[in-house]
Amino acid sequence: MTTHSPWHDRRAASKSIIEATALLLCATVAWSAEHAPTAPAIQWHQLWSRADVVALAGKFVCLRVDIDHQPELADRYRAEAVPTVVLSDPWGTEIARRQGFGNADEYLGILRAMPGDFSEVGPWQARLAANRRDLQALRAVGLAYHRMKLFQASTEFLQKALATSEVRSQPEVLAEVLTIIGWNNLKTGNFKSARKSFERCLKEVPTHRALDLTVYGLFAAHLAAGERQEAEPLLHRLESCCPDSALTQRARTDLKPVVAQGK
Fold it and tell me: How many domains does one find in the chain?
């Protein structure tokens, strides 16, 4: 790493929480006779002094860890390979991880995709620090991360919301949580898990305010998996339960090219 990169010391994690800013951790080893740099290693280290990378890193609190001299920090972030880059929210929820030298575009991609500002989540995380089973806080964090397109992290918190005792007494919340988990899985290409979540929602809360979002989600999951026969009845269901919904029209539009292709 060069002195131009914005790396902080071990107090970076606390700084990240205080500022509600995402944490970027990079685990490496110091170059020595034992750890002689290879060409890929040199290129990878030079990456972090590039102007565009330094600019992107500005939205993070950056922590550099030498795994030989800071083994406790390396263990905390499960940095077992060199190099390891971990992006997390300020409270330690891992969002992305990359190991190995890779290529510049791969690292630039995750840095660009990761939001830096988590201030809207701060008050809810404070509530979770006091009560880790706070349904309202778990729901709020899960929905916020869904809006931020952090789909796996969103599901992590929504699954915890599902595990609370009071969610069963709030059917609208239960339906919302199951539906958003379904959409998180759909967005990440896990069509089987998406279907299971949507189907569970329709079974346990057959009518709710966002029924069109659930039914369309199940329709989209089947269509994405190439299951036209399963998708078509769901369009009929949308037309029956939610005829004026924009998602019903969207389902019609989505199905047309599939039907045409099958002829």
Answer: 2
